[in-house]
Amino acid sequence: MSVNSAKIEQSHRYFEQTQTHFEISDRQKSTEPIRVVADDRERKSYVIESLLEIENIDIDIRRLSLGDYQIDGRVIVERKTLYDFAVSIIDGRLFKQMLRMANSQAKGILILEGTAGDIADIGVTREAMQGALITVSLILGVPVLRSRDPAETANLIVYISRQIEAIARGGIQRHGYQPKGIRYRQLYILQGLPSVGRERADRLLDRFGSVEAVMIAGIDDLQTVDGIGKNIAEKIKWAVSEHVPSKSSQPFDSKSNSPETVSLVVPLATSIPDRSN
User: Where in the chain is the domain with CATH 1.10.150.20?
Assistant: First the structure.
């Protein structure tokens, strides 16, 4: 068995062990295959080989003008090894690619593949790497995911597709605390109000009898509850009645918000090391 095949097999075992963390309910699962378009220049990466070993994946290999993978026509994935990521910071390719992804109608995602040992001799400072990641994720709004190897990159592509599909079909399964019983659900909702913890939520529910009654109560009525003064009452009333304008009503200045105006300043190394030796 080759080294790459061993890595693929190892990553698939990891995928099976952790799959429960990404569960989608039976109602949300689809019999339709996951459709992935892979750039033909990715043939040597072993990501395509890994995808072909996963069930219910429909892969089309052709030249892409943007990104390395397209998922169901909704998501564009740019895959970079850590070495290529570092080099692309130096030569300026990274920010040009990320600007194009940020301007795309599809959702862009950057997957960084590899471990720290892959860039031990690259000559790019940690600060430069961090600065680039901040620019890509925070300034340009392109999410950054990490993978250990091509097989895990393939698994990430599957995770992304399943999550996007679940949301499109009506939301993903919510993990974590799930309140049982109507009173506990009502308390759960009330504790989302400003400065309202469990005890105040209990008192509010005892006083008004329902979440709806709390929402329509006036400031003076709210203050009749022990532990809720005028300041907290005003915060609660503001939270449930404040009008939030829709995005469409906000003015948009195409010049000031254009991605091309973003300052992409990060400390860079001055040269690319020769890896031929």
Answer: 182-241
How far apart (Å, rounded) are the C-alpha atoms in residues 135 and 98? 10
Distance of CA 268 to the CA centre of its chain: 27
Pick the CATH number of 182-241 from 1.10.8.60, 1.10.150.20, 1.10.3260.10, 3.40.50.2300: 1.10.150.20
- Please report where in the chains the tokens 């309910």 appear, as a residue: 25
- pLDDT tens sequence for the chain (277 residues): 555 555 556 555 544 544 444 444 443 345 578 889 999 999 888 999 999 988 888 899 999 999 999 998 889 999 999 999 999 998 889 999 999 998 888 889 999 998 877 777 777 888 888 999 999 998 899 999 999 999 999 999 998 888 877 766 654 455 555 556 788 888 888 888 888 888 899 999 999 999 888 989 999 999 999 999 999 998 888 887 766 555 444 443 433 344 443 444 444 444 444 444 4
Degrees, nearest 5: CA angle 182-185-187: 110
Identify the CATH number of the domain defined by range 3-173.
3.40.50.10130
